[in-house]
Amino acid sequence: MSRQELLSPEGLRIDGRRANELRRIACKASVLNTADGSAYYEQGNTKVLVAVFGPREPRQRTALQQHDQAIINVEFNVAPFSTSERRKRSKGDKRLLEISSFVRQTFEGAVQRGVYPRSQIDIYVHLLQHDGGMLEACVNAATLALVDAGISMDDYVCACTAGLVDEQPLLDLNGQEESAINMPGLTVAVLPRNGSIALLQMESKIHATKLDDVMQLAIEGCKHIHKKLDEAVLAAANDLAVKLNNSVQ
Amino acid sequence: MDIDTETQQQNLTTQIVTPGSAITSDPAFMRGHGTFGEHGTIYSSVAGVVERINKLVSVRSLKQRYSGEIGDIVVGRITEVASKRWRVDVNSRQDAMLLLSSINLPGGIQRRKSESDELQMRSFFAEGDLVFAEVQSYFADGALSLHTRSIQYGKLRNGTFVSVFPQLVPRSRSHFHTLPCGVDVVLGVNGYIWVSKHVPAAKVEANAEHIYSNKNEEISETERESIARVANCIQLLNRLYVKITDTTIIFAYEASLGHAVKDLLTMDIATDLAHAVNSRLAQQG
């Protein structure tokens, strides 16, 4: 097969989904007890673990450029066993630094940094398994972990990818689709309450007339993800409230 | 969500809000912690429980770092010796300050602080030391200022340190408890807890000259064991997310007596003990 069949004549994709279907999402907050907040997030076969520490005293006080708000520090780490080809990446890998700066910039807009002057919020992201949608999974998992840490935010940040094949927008690309040559893909992160866009990233070409459709589809996906994240947060909060309530009585 | 109908429902779990969810758009309400306003509507900025005091609406997060209040009793760890002050880690969003002028120096409470005191600050508190202190005031940027101007405050010795969720330690009249098993417990409201050998108050006062000593007293093996047992029990309560008070610690301690100290935190025994503690709490409640 010279050209991969990304969308079958019946309208099904490689993994059997329809064009506007998300992959299975499973997530859980409060998975680590040493961190202030943590989350485990699975979207299809992409699996991410995030630990949030802070707000806490900045490690290097010289890094504080603005004294009236918190600094956000993101470290992104890809497990050597995360892809089919085992590969150890150095800490200075430009690709990893780029992703971590995307995540940082996204949350600098959503976290109410003014509430925590002279502090630092550390977000450690570990990609355990990679099958497309690395950035979206990192953003969603980090949101969950930040909420779990009790850090003030304007809203959730929900991210989703979308691509275009044969004039047909596809939601939530998996690894195979993402690496296909004839597949332009973009990642959008939105604040679902007012629909403002926190992140928009695209590395390939897409026809200008089609961009809007693809983005709209991705934003639709973000809304579904918002529901999932909200459920996970409520589950964790209810769990704690029940435990606390029992002990108060 | 309308807050007035909300207050009629006393069930805690129904009042939980998540970031970005609207609480009320009634202009009569003022927004407190954990909320923000946009276009006349008050939204929650954290996941937690809505609380209302008169016209002030706030959201209390169920899991959060310690935010200090004046008068709080805390346990902290010295992280840095700076000029005329120590920086103290109190599990808060910034390190707290302990000024040289707000500690008691050996040899008279009213003694003036001289330059030589400034030079030998490290002989009072060095990096890594644990202090038992009270929150005296805030600085302009929100950092806490501590003081240790009482005989019961000061350096912590003769024991072990346990860190728990700060929400689990309620503010109460007393944060220093002597348990029946002969162990002293200092419950810092910042979630730092010190478990140590019991030293009678009279002895502490007699040794006022040695309040900054780094030497532990003689601790017998049985004392060590009860300290370790209490420390593990506190860890267990933390895992259960149960309020940590002298009563709950004693419950857990009594339930644990049938097991060896080293086994307390293993999965099956911890689960058994959790059931025992929970049912005891339910009975009492």
TrEMBL record, chain A:
Sequence ranges assigned to domain Exoribonuclease phosphorolytic in this UniProt record: 21-151, 155-221
Main subcellular location: cytoplasm
Keyword field contains Nucleotidyltransferase: no
Any one Gene Ontology molecular-function term assigned to this protein's record: RNA binding
Family matches, as SUPFAM superfamilies: Ribonuclease PH domain 2-like, Ribosomal protein S5 domain 2-like
Gene Ontology terms describing biological process: nuclear mRNA surveillance; poly(A)-dependent snoRNA 3'-end processing; rRNA catabolic process; U4 snRNA 3'-end processing
Pfam family, one: RNase_PH_C
Entry GO CC: cytoplasmic exosome (RNase complex); nuclear exosome (RNase complex); nucleolus
InterPro entries noted in UniProt: ExoRNase_PH_dom1, ExoRNase_PH_dom2, ExoRNase_PH_dom2_sf, PNPase/RNase_PH_dom_sf, Ribosomal_Su5_D2-typ_SF, RNase_PH
Keywords: Cytoplasm, Exosome
Record's subcellular location: Cytoplasm; Nucleus, Nucleolus
Family, similarity comment: Belongs to the RNase PH family.
Subunit structure: Component of the RNA exosome complex. Specifically part of the catalytically inactive RNA exosome core complex (Exo-9) which may associate with the catalytic subunits RRP6 and DIS3 in cytoplasmic- and nuclear-specific RNA exosome complex forms. Exo-9 is formed by a hexameric base ring of RNase PH domain-containing subunits and a cap ring consisting of CSL4, RRP4 and RRP40.
Protein name per the record: Ribosomal RNA-processing protein 41
Organism: Coemansia brasiliensis
Gene giving rise to this polypeptide: SKI6
TrEMBL record, chain B:
Any Pfam family hit: ECR1_N
Main localization (coarse): nucleus
Keywords per UniProt: Exosome, Nucleus, RNA-binding, rRNA processing
GO BP term, pick one: exonucleolytic trimming to generate mature 3'-end of 5.8S rRNA from tricistronic rRNA transcript (SSU-rRNA, 5.8S rRNA, LSU-rRNA)
Domain S1 motif: 69-149
A GO CC term assigned to this protein in UniProt: nuclear exosome (RNase complex)
Cellular compartment(s): Nucleus
Family: Belongs to the RRP4 family.
Listed name of the protein: Exosome complex component rrp4
Organism the protein comes from: Coemansia brasiliensis
